[in-house]
Amino acid sequence: MLRGGVVESLPGRGPQARGRLSELEVTVDLFHDSTRSAQSPMWRVLAVGPVRFERPLEARVGGWQGWIDPWMQLGETLMVPAGVGPEFTVHSEHTTSLDHPLVTSLRHQGPSLGPGALHVRRDLMRAEVRFRARAEDNRGLFGYLQAMREISEMPSPRPSTSEFSRLRRQGASPERG
Predict the structure, then answer these.
(1) Are residues 10 and 16 in contact, defined by beta-carbon separation less than 8 angstroms?
(2) DSSP string covering 32-80
(3) What is the pLDDT of residues 157-172, one digit of tens each?
């Protein structure tokens, strides 16, 4: 899935893959955390690139125990019932609805999602997904990567009227930023 990908083994860290996924620069590494034995080892994914969400959100899928950003547990929680895929929760600083693009992207992955977490904020996404010894059992990793790609490819939201006013005062256009 990663264009121009390279796989390397870093001393003290283990295997790592880097490459491009659409407009995202992605790093995937295998991580073991002795304090999280129920979830270790796990895949950790860092994707840097276009993410057009103004506020951070974190989704925890399939009963995932850990937090990528522990501050998110203080926010609003949306329960997303199981459908084609597993049940999950979305945590954010503001009220989120079932038609939010993050929810939609995760639902599109359906049964390919497994236990894990996805944290999304402006220009950055992180995921944690349970590692399985057999390669074919790691399809959850690819489900999260596909959700990240879909989120990154979403069009920019149209600026609000107040945003237009602010940009006009600064002498910029919304298209140029």
Answers:
(1) yes
(2) --GGGTTT-SEEEEEEES----SS-EEEEETT----SSGGGGGSEEEEE
(3) 555 445 555 555 666 5
